[in-house]
Amino acid sequence: MNDHSSPRWVHWLNTLQLTVAGILILAPTVWMVLSSFKPSFEVTAYPPTLFFQPTFENYVTLWQTTPFLSYAVNSFVVTIGSTLLGLAFGIPAAFAVSWSRITWPAVLTLAARMAPGTLFLLPWYIMFREVGLIGSYTALILSHAVITMPIVIWVLLPFFDNIPRSVFEAAQMDGCSVTRILWRIALPLVGSGVAVASILAFVFSWNFFLFSLILSNSDTKTLIAAAFNFVGEGSTQWGSLMAAATLIALPPLALAILVQRWLVAGLTLGAVKG
Amino acid sequence: MTPGSTNSQGRQLAALSAPAVLFTVAMIAFPVVYTIWLGFHAFSSTGEASFAGGANYAALVADGEFWNGLYVTFALYALSMVLQLVAGIYLAMLLFHSKRLSGLLRSLLISPFMMPPVVAGMMWLVILDPSLGAANYILVSLGLPASEWLASPTWVIPTIALIDTWQWAPYVALIVLGGLQSLPPSVYEAAQIDGASPFRIFRRITLPLLLPTIVTAAVLRSVDLLRFFDIIYITTQGGPGNASNTLNIYGFRVGFEFFNIGYASALMITLSAIVLAAVLVLNRLRNAVAW
């Protein structure tokens, strides 16, 4: 309803409100990034300063006083591992659900995404301790795959649904097995869906806090779990705290912006066609 | 196609979803059953389990901290939900009446909710610091009283609700915008010809037609809000005192800080039942307003 009939001032009023909303959305993030580049004596200055001599001091401090790099490596191992596992389980499942219209496997995995994580964290802790996997990448990747797999399935479902049935039927006439149709015919047709699913799975696995808080140890701690320690130690070290926050937010934000156009439909798990 | 090949097709399809189903059963179904079992047991200091019947659940009813957690969970849920639905619908209307959604604007809108909630918590912790934070500086500059924000037992719930609203109102807005764009333009034209005011059109036509979309957004947010964890754990860990101690935070602490496994399990089962009930009720509501 881009009504051209409405007077000019209505248009300006609308733009003004949108600008204010945009500033409210952006300002906290800008403040975080600005603070990370402030000299340490100026981060906690009151009144807060908006103009200052930017410095990498906080990033250097973070690098020197914490094993930031190894936390980052842990985060990438767990996130990429769980994304790949989610794709390996999720792609065939989404294809089978789309083809057979038997939806309960998809609904079952969704239930896992809806339940509070603390519900299975306690048994996981006991089970992983039993087999000596507490603090292992294996435990972290398995637990994070519980987040990634339903994302992959539900993002890919509409993509598979959009492939005309006649394509599959023709392939079947030629004697292709269902599995072969998936890998040779269907998967190449849903490439963009796989890209969106992978990125969303990556973002949510990267951002996930609760499981690594309990299942990691000092060697396998992810950035998000380490952030909790930074807050505890950093009550006066706002500069390096904000440097850490900026670096941790960077990978998911960069990836999300890359696929922003297709993101919203994926995020609603197919509930709304965006 | 012969019936035999249909059969083998069914088997092949089942084989394709088997890994996902087995993984879910191993990682979710079995642990949930295990948690239910744990909830009916008491554990000695050496970790030996003994059947306790409903003792953990009886303790729950008598536990003031549980009732506080229930109150905090629902207060935070209701306040956050109302704030982000109102802000989200308002934002969606603004976006709908402006030009096409540009990539830059969309990137701006998704940036809050694609950022880790833990980072959002860290960032707001600094902004809302009672003595040195930018938020109080702005309030005082405008001649308004400063707030203790997360450090105040009275204001901690509204403050956390505000942080969550900052993060998720743009998400609600994008969902509602999708709903607005799918409405048939003819309904507006008819109303405009009848001379209805814009506000009346919004209340009588747009809002009722949008209800299914709004309820969908509410369902998606409910699941996250009832098990609210990250931002609270990073900012207040349930405090000050127990003022932001939601059921999820309380259950987590009972389990992993006090290692009271049986009682923590009873708490988590209760919270999960609440989440399940909320989703069922809201799904009913969604069917009721569907058109």
UniProtKB/TrEMBL annotation, chain A:
<feature type="transmembrane region" description="Helical">
    <location>
        <begin position="134"/>
        <end position="160"/>
    </location>
</feature>
<dbReference type="GO" id="GO:0055085">
    <property type="term" value="P:transmembrane transport"/>
</dbReference>
<comment type="similarity">
    <text>Belongs to the binding-protein-dependent transport system permease family.</text>
</comment>
<keyword id="KW-0813">Transport</keyword>
<feature type="transmembrane region" description="Helical">
    <location>
        <begin position="107"/>
        <end position="128"/>
    </location>
</feature>
<dbReference type="InterPro" id="IPR050901">
    <property type="entry name" value="BP-dep_ABC_trans_perm"/>
</dbReference>
<dbReference type="GO" id="GO:0005886">
    <property type="term" value="C:plasma membrane"/>
</dbReference>
<feature type="transmembrane region" description="Helical">
    <location>
        <begin position="68"/>
        <end position="95"/>
    </location>
</feature>
<dbReference type="Pfam" id="PF00528">
    <property type="entry name" value="BPD_transp_1"/>
</dbReference>
<protein>
    <submittedName>
        <fullName>Carbohydrate ABC transporter membrane protein 2 (CUT1 family)</fullName>
    </submittedName>
</protein>
<dbReference type="InterPro" id="IPR000515">
    <property type="entry name" value="MetI-like"/>
</dbReference>
<feature type="transmembrane region" description="Helical">
    <location>
        <begin position="181"/>
        <end position="209"/>
    </location>
</feature>
<feature type="transmembrane region" description="Helical">
    <location>
        <begin position="238"/>
        <end position="259"/>
    </location>
</feature>
<keyword id="KW-0472">Membrane</keyword>
<keyword id="KW-1003">Cell membrane</keyword>
<feature type="domain" description="ABC transmembrane type-1">
    <location>
        <begin position="72"/>
        <end position="259"/>
    </location>
</feature>
<feature type="transmembrane region" description="Helical">
    <location>
        <begin position="12"/>
        <end position="34"/>
    </location>
</feature>
<keyword id="KW-1133">Transmembrane helix</keyword>
<keyword id="KW-0812">Transmembrane</keyword>
<dbReference type="InterPro" id="IPR035906">
    <property type="entry name" value="MetI-like_sf"/>
</dbReference>
TrEMBL record, chain B:
<feature type="transmembrane region" description="Helical">
    <location>
        <begin position="12"/>
        <end position="37"/>
    </location>
</feature>
<dbReference type="InterPro" id="IPR052730">
    <property type="entry name" value="Sugar_ABC_transporter"/>
</dbReference>
<dbReference type="Pfam" id="PF00528">
    <property type="entry name" value="BPD_transp_1"/>
</dbReference>
<keyword id="KW-1133">Transmembrane helix</keyword>
<comment type="similarity">
    <text>Belongs to the binding-protein-dependent transport system permease family.</text>
</comment>
<feature type="transmembrane region" description="Helical">
    <location>
        <begin position="108"/>
        <end position="127"/>
    </location>
</feature>
<keyword id="KW-0813">Transport</keyword>
<feature type="transmembrane region" description="Helical">
    <location>
        <begin position="261"/>
        <end position="282"/>
    </location>
</feature>
<dbReference type="GO" id="GO:0055085">
    <property type="term" value="P:transmembrane transport"/>
</dbReference>
<protein>
    <submittedName>
        <fullName>Carbohydrate ABC transporter membrane protein 1 (CUT1 family)</fullName>
    </submittedName>
</protein>
<keyword id="KW-0812">Transmembrane</keyword>
<feature type="domain" description="ABC transmembrane type-1">
    <location>
        <begin position="70"/>
        <end position="280"/>
    </location>
</feature>
<dbReference type="InterPro" id="IPR000515">
    <property type="entry name" value="MetI-like"/>
</dbReference>
<feature type="transmembrane region" description="Helical">
    <location>
        <begin position="155"/>
        <end position="180"/>
    </location>
</feature>
<keyword id="KW-0472">Membrane</keyword>
<feature type="transmembrane region" description="Helical">
    <location>
        <begin position="201"/>
        <end position="220"/>
    </location>
</feature>
<dbReference type="InterPro" id="IPR035906">
    <property type="entry name" value="MetI-like_sf"/>
</dbReference>
<dbReference type="GO" id="GO:0005886">
    <property type="term" value="C:plasma membrane"/>
</dbReference>
<feature type="transmembrane region" description="Helical">
    <location>
        <begin position="74"/>
        <end position="96"/>
    </location>
</feature>
